[in-house]
UniProtKB/TrEMBL annotation:
InterPro entries tied to this protein: CYP11_CYP27_families (IPR050479), Cyt_P450 (IPR001128), Cyt_P450_E_grp-I (IPR002401), Cyt_P450_sf (IPR036396)
The name this protein goes by in its record: Cytochrome P450
Family affiliation: Belongs to the cytochrome P450 family.
Keyword Metal-binding recorded: yes
Pfam entry (one): p450
């Protein structure tokens, strides 16, 4: 009976979604006379523009709230210069975001990279992984990685290493709580856990390579230097980057040192596994068997370690924080199956998506909703008379670079507004009342179709929450991250009681990723009546 109601529910839902989706998609083919100039924007004083408002709102660290507020003022699509020369188009409508990521981004989706990283790459020529690649090089490598990390069945490669590593982590926490309560430095602990998980995945299940004392020290050092990359990049935001680099100021030196150390340690770790590849059955061995060159393995896998660290660490932290004062939800986790932990994670990422914004640069003239937007690259490329692929591969990495090329185009191409990065406001779409009823509340059951409590929540647009993005350039580590975090959360809840000790309100800051405004202090003690079959 329950099943048939469920199927009916699904049948009823599909056409409605399809209908709306087709409408948004079809709009890309109809004639459209509105342009970027017609997109709503905040009217303020000339020259200063919205700069003062931006600074007053908390500048970069509160960008997610500033943009959320602007969407509330101006609607789901608006444009703003945000202190730069070029207009950025912000979009929070879930159907438009979906259209952007599934239909408009082109064969080689291009995103904007953090400027300090781009400058580092340009200065020192370091070869980086998927996130930094473009054009054919990106597509070729992405296809290989998809096969191992995202396709059906890839769990087999991931499950063993993830479970073993989380189990060791829980064991360590059990020792720490043996004589009472324990307040760990969760940020550092979760950074280290994420790195241990990736290392385990690249080594594989039956690896005979055993970590020794030196290896332990190396991983701890690595974990700290990766953390420092994110901290120093954030400090550089808001400062004149090129001057900081030119005068070799401390802030630049700290950033450079953290990237130098992280990259060299990442390459050292992957290099070690490569030299022992015949004794392992992990990801590195699989790629090597597929004739992926050692150089490519080093740069792609080396970057995985960096990409995995902050994203999974902060998502785990936010999830535990949300659970810390929810005794009923913890009891539900203990009594229900693993699916429920999935809902917990979905809900936590809806409220705190570590990537609160996604960026795309349109490869061709496109219609987004009611507006016709000129290609971000196309005109520049045409003026330079080189192929779009070549341009992508060589140059496309930051707004700064595009602006430089816009300038080269001089007379033909004066208007930098033509270079229009589109920014999907993921934080806003996940917290919009039109997409999720009681949007500000942490209600994991909203993701469970069978939960009777869901009935009172009228609005539920599941694709309005896109923590891993969507489409060809979405997160390659999605399966791995979900496996790791759900395993971690269910083991922690099964084995420990925990409560939040912070007395002041914890808010979110944009520090590249969405991080807590102050250190979250959670106090752990053993949960004595842990059920036998789910505890370790
Ligand atoms: C909760 C954890 C995570 C979240 C929320 C997350 C989120 C994201 C998002 C939103 C993107 C797309 C960026 C864009 O479209 O511009 C992305 C890309 C990426 N992620 Fe993750 N990520 C997570 C964990 C991981 C892990 C564990 C890995 C390691 C394998 C990883 C590796 C990458 C890489 C390499 C890219 C770039 C892909 C490409 O450009 O083709 N991520 N991630």
């Amino acid at each position: 009976m329950k099943t048939s109601i469920l199927i009916m529910h699904q049948i009823k839902r599909i056409p409605i979604h399809k209908k709306i989706f087709n409408k948004a998609f079809a709009s890309n083919f109809v004639e459209c006379s509105l342009t970027i100039d017609d997109i709503p924007y905040r009217r303020t004083f000339p020259v200063i523009g919205t700069k003062l408002e931006f600074i007053a709102s908390g500048s970069g660290t509160k960008l997610h709230e500033y943009i959320d507020h602007r969407h509330k003022q101006l609607g789901p699509v608006f444009r703003e210069k945000l202190g730069g020369d070029a207009d950025l188009v912000f979009v929070s409508d879930p159907l438009l975001i979906r259209t952007l990521l599934l239909n408009l981004e082109g064969k080689y989706p291009a995103h904007i990279l953090p400027e300090p990283w781009v400058l580092y790459e340009n200065l020192y020529g370091s070869k980086r992984g998927l996130f930094f690649m473009n054009g054919e090089e990106w597509l070729e490598n992405r296809r290989i990685m998809n096969k191992h990390l995202l396709k059906e069945g890839s769990e087999t490669l991931l499950e063993g290493p993830v479970k073993t590593t989380v189990r060791k982590f829980i064991q360590k926490m059990k020792y720490a709580t043996e004589s009472g309560t324990f307040v760990p430095n969760l940020e550092s602990e979760f950074y280290r856990l994420s790195i241990d998980v990736i290392v385990a995945v690249i080594l594989g299940n039956n690896s005979t390579i055993k970590p020794n004392k030196d290896c332990e020290a190396l991983l701890t050092n690595f974990s700290e230097s990766v953390k420092k990359i994110f901290q120093t990049t954030t400090t550089l935001y808001g400062l004149p980057l090129h001057l900081c680099q030119k005068f070799n100021l401390k802030v630049w030196r700290d950033f450079k040192e953290s990237v130098d150390i992280s990259l060299s340690l990442a390459h050292k770790i992957v290099g070690e596994v490569l030299s022992n590849r015949h004794h392992s059955n992990g990801l590195v061995k699989m790629l090597s068997d597929e004739k992926v060159s050692d150089e490519n393995i080093k740069k792609i896998i080396g970057d995985f370690v960096i990409a995995a660290a902050d994203t999974t660490a902060y998502t785990s932290l936010w999830t535990l924080f949300l659970l810390s004062n929810q005794e009923n939800t913890k009891a539900e986790i203990r009594s229900r199956d693993k699916n429920y932990v999935n809902y917990i994670l979905k809900e936590s990422m809806r409220l705190y998506p570590v990537a609160p914004f996604l960026t795309r640069i349109l490869p061709t003239e496109s219609v987004l909703g009611s507006y016709k937007l000129i290609a971000g690259l196309y005109l520049v490329v045409k003026m330079l008379n080189i192929s779009i692929e070549m341009f992508c591969r060589k140059h496309i990495s930051s707004v700064h670079t595009i602006r430089k090329y816009s300038a080269i185009c001089g007379n033909y191409y004066k208007d930098v507004n033509n270079v229009t990065p589109i920014i999907a406001s993921i934080y806003t779409s996940g917290r919009d009342e039109n997409n999720f009823s009681e949007a500000e509340k942490f209600l994991p059951y909203r993701w469970d179709r069978n939960d009777p409590r869901k009935k009172k929540l009228q609005n539920h647009t599941s694709f309005a929450s896109l923590p891993f993005a969507l489409g060809a350039r979405s997160c390659i580590g999605k399966k791995l991250a979900i496996l790791q975090i759900t395993e971690l959360i269910s083991q922690i809840v099964d084995n420990f009681e925990f409560k939040c000790l912070n007395k002041t309100e914890i808010k979110a800051n944009t520090s590249q990723v969405l991080v807590p405004s102050t250190d979250i202090k959670l106090e752990f003690s053993r949960f004595e009546s842990a059920s036998k079959d789910r505890s370790i």
